[in-house]
Design the sequence.
């Protein structure tokens, strides 16, 4: 499951699941670039990760929603990393609203960040990866973060669930399109991650009560799957979505 020496870009990597993934990748000696929209959160994270690992961890601040800006941010990361072995699309927004209270601006924000932003970064990544040599059997790997909400009814955040279903669909389409280039594109669908934002939102206890294991996932529980998908151990999965929900998907 090695990721040592791999050049990996993470969007939304300054907090939550993205940060847990970044920490795990740095511990396992990957070369890392983190793209995040919030410089006040990103800068201390980069300093801490760099100090802890002794390796250079690149932080890039910017917005992945406008296509030209997303490509610029990706290019900046790629220039520093050289080869880009992996991309993790963690950037996203998670609103909760009653299904009849979703406003136009809610739809615009959700789809802009969760779908367009993910699409922009995937497109930039495959254009870069197609020109790279094959290492083993693979030119590059992309991991998108979807959600178990995409596969269950969710009246309290239907617009978020819809965006994650869209990301699952994009994953399949990209995987099919770029399989001949030996680029593996996968999605991971978690449920109930105990991040600081989720704790503050106050819904974790309710979700855990509907989960057969009776508890929420810790960020590392999901990060392990992401790192596996980026590693040399993943040689044949593409277009698939891995659900990691503690049984919530079946409850």
Sequence:
């Amino acid at each position: 499951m090695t990721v040592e020496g791999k050049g990996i870009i993470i969007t939304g990597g300054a907090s939550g699941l993205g940060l847990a993934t970044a920490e795990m990748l740095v511990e396992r000696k990957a070369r890392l670039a983190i793209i995040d929209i919030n410089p006040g959160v990103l800068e201390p994270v980069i300093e801490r990760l760099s100090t802890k690992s002794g390796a250079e961890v690149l932080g890039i601040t910017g917005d992945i929603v406008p296509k030209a800006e997303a490509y610029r941010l990706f290019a900046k990361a790629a220039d520093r990393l050289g080869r880009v072995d992996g991309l993790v699309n963690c950037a996203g927004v998670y609103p909760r609203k009653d299904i009849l209270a979703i406003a136009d601006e809610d739809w615009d924000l959700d789809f802009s960040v969760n779908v367009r932003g993910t699409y922009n970064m995937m497109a930039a990544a495959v254009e870069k990866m197609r020109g790279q040599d094959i290492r083993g059997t693979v030119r590059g790997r992309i991991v998108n973060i979807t959600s178990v909400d995409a596969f269950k009814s969710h009246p309290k955040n239907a617009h978020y669930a819809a965006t994650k279903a869209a990301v699952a669909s994009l994953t399949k389409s990209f995987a099919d399109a770029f399989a001949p280039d030996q680029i593996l594109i996968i999605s991971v669908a978690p449920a109930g991650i105990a991040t600081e934002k989720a704790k503050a939102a106050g819904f974790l206890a309710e979700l855990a009560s509907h989960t057969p294991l009776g508890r929420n996932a810790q960020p590392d529980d999901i990060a392990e799957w992401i790192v596996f998908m980026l590693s040399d151990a993943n040689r044949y999965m593409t277009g698939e979505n891995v659900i990691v929900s503690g049984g919530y998907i079946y409850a």
About this structure: The chain has a mean pLDDT of 95. The first strand starts at residue 7 and ends at 11. The chain has eight helices and seven strands.
